[in-house]
Amino acid sequence: MIVKLIIFAVYGVILGLVTIPLSKKLTLSRTEDPGMAAPLNKLTVKLLCIVFGLVTSAALVFTANSYSLMVRDLLLLVPIFSIMIVDALVRKIPNPLLLTMLVIDIVSLIYECIKLDDPDDVLDLIFKPIVGVAMGMIVCIIPSILKIPMGAGDVKYSGVIGFTVYAFGYFQAMVLMSVLVALYWAYLKASKKGGIKTLIPMGPFLSIGTIITMCVPITRFVGEISLF
């Protein structure tokens, strides 16, 4: 318990402090207006980032089933948190962050496969992220059919999320994202700042849905589902 307290406290603060300059650099490299990154210079924003880092780190540390999963999830927080910030500021999801997530996931997958003795279990574990990616990409076809604009970054992020939390977890993250988006639209309408037709970045909402899914995957309550 003491070790976990130290881990989440130290990592949470580091996460909050590191994410600000990283997100600022990525934001400035994707816009010609330096003022877009101005919010990251505010003390309140920096403090909120540290608080977010502490809360999410604590949630992942105390819900992880193993230390290997805890390490993977904590490392994933860096690109996920940065994606939230950059997408909220300039509505773009940096490819380097997506690549970072994939590298972390692949290394973790290899480690978990090495620990398994049964070849069938290894194959099942390998297929899970593959099915998750396919599911994430297929779901992104629906908005285009409905003539709803969806950026290429959102499509790629959706696929990476499927790789990270698998197909069943992906659906959970999408449901959570939909609820959060609906609440945000309700807020915009109530405050008369917009409505359901207001275009908003999906990255922050999908990121939060993913973090919640990583902490409390619904498969813990319904049991493991093959390939999902």
Mind explaining what this structure looks like?
The structure is a single chain. With about 230 residues, the chain is mostly helical. Helix content is about 75%, strand content about 0%. It is built from 9 helices and no strands. The protein has helices at about 1-30, 45-65, 65-90, 95-115, 120-140, 140-145, 150-190, 205-215, 220. Helix 3 (about 65-90) packs antiparallel against helix 4 (about 95-115), helix 4 (about 95-115) runs antiparallel to helix 5 (about 120-140) and helix 4 (about 95-115) crosses helix 7 (about 150-190). The protein is globular and about 55 Å long.
Care to give the gist of this entry?
The protein is 77% helix and 0% strand.
Anisotropy-based shape: globular
Which spans have pLDDT < 50 for at least 5 consecutive residues? none
Rg on CA atoms, Å: 18 Å
Instruction: Please indicate the percent range of residues in DSSP E strands (runs of 2 or more).
Output: under 5%
Largest sheet, strands/sense/barrel: none
Share of helix among residues? over 70%
Q: Could you report the average pLDDT, rounded to the nearest whole number?
A: 88
Which structural class best describes the helix and strand composition?
Answer: mainly alpha
| Tally of helical segments | 9
β-strand number = 0
